[in-house]
Amino acid sequence: MNGFADHGLDDSAFGEKAGGFRENIRTFDAFPKTKPTYTRRTSTGGYTTLILIFVSFFLSLSEFLRWYRGHETHLFSVEKGVSHQMQINLDIVVPMNCRDLHVNVQDASGDRILAGEMLSKDPTKWAHWVDASGTHRLAEAKYVKEEEEDTHVGHVLGEVGGKRKKKFKKTPWQGRGAGAGRSCRIYGSLEGNKVQGDFHITARGHGYMELGEHLDHGTFNFSHIINELSFGPLYPSLLNPLDRTYATTDDHFYKYQYYLSVVPTIYTRSPSPPPTADPDHNTPLPPNYSNRNTIITNQYAATSQSHPVNERTIPGIFFKFDIEPILLTVREEREGFLWLMVRVVNVVSGVLVGGGWCYQLAGWGTEVLGRGRRGRGGGEGMLNGRVYHEEGDDE
């Protein structure tokens, strides 16, 4: 009647075609499609899509930056390398004449080093150092963050860059004004035994007995500014706990006591940092070993106990240090690029799926609220599904 039979057609020509692998595999399609004629685009959906794209981009960028920066791992182990020497770097200013100060180092093995003969002493002006930028008292809160930065691999390797400065800064010209030459800058590096010990700065004739040497007590002033105190290779750009700190007193008999815990430390970006000793020759690596990705050094924690003393006690500045028998390896690691791609895919897919659910729930909620409002405030009539009845129709 409609001409199907004339053209050899029947109802099967308008259904799904049967047979064939490509047709049968459609049964497993987990992504069913909707014809464009059954979809409707709205401005609300467009705004939602833009928001989801922005959120996905922001989170993906955050994942990339996190991957690029990497993360740090801290590994503590027993130090297996055997090393006998350790370099001590000191730069300190004391408001006393250089000829009136003695510096000595003594360790647990009983060795005494006349550090005053190995370190340099320059007359200087106290005001040149105490007013310098960044000079602060020990453990001042605003400098704690700056010290913490120097414990991160990226910052340490960036500051050092595989190179180290072997010399201290020159003593500034003191001029001829008041205070010139009344202070002493003691600086330099010296080698000591890698064992527990202490080094101290005392007045001439006090501390170790020296024949015919005695200094008037009224000239004692052990206020001081520590520009540098480190163990191992000299890296002036790295900030240690006592660097750029100062302490002052008006008492002539005053004892400054610092307790230091020194921890051998390796900063590295390499997945397999070098050992602390050469296994073939059973000899330690140089203590100043460093390259572009690895630095071997020492860090320390410091505490202070300072107080006035009587005339029977030796005044001065005393540093007691202890070498911890552990090795701290701080390694900066970065995951593979495939790990990053998996993270980005998870983030984007999660945002799109979660955003789609939220959009659908919002649409359903809007529709339900709209129905309730129409049901409560709509007029009566055929257009809203209600029939108007006149009085008496039910009789």
Kindly summarize this structure in a few lines:
The protein has 395 residues and is an alpha+beta fold.
Keywords:
7 helices, alpha+beta, 395 residues, disordered C terminus, elongated, 15 strands, 8-stranded mixed β-sheet
Please characterize this protein's 3D structure.
The chain is 25% helix and 28% strand. The protein is built from seven helices and 15 strands. Strands 1, 3, 4, 7, 10, 13, 14 and 15 form an eight-stranded mixed β-sheet that branches. The chain has a five-stranded antiparallel β-sheet with strand order 5-6-2-8-9. The protein has a two-stranded antiparallel ribbon with strand order 11-12. Helix 2 (43-69) runs antiparallel to helix 7 (337-377). The longest helix has 41 residues, at 337-377. It is elongated.
Question: What is the tally of helical segments?
Answer: 7
Parts with pLDDT < 50 across at least 5 consecutive residues? 277-283, 391-395
Kindly state the percentage of residues in helix: 10-25%
Question: How large is the radius of gyration?
Answer: 39 Å
Give the termini distance in whole angstroms. 53 Å
* Largest β-sheet summary: 8 strands, mixed
Beta content comes to: 25-35%
Which whole number gives the mean pLDDT?
A: 78
Structural class by SSE content? alpha+beta
Task: Give the ordered list of helices and strands.
Answer: HHEEEEHEHHHEEEEEEEEEEH
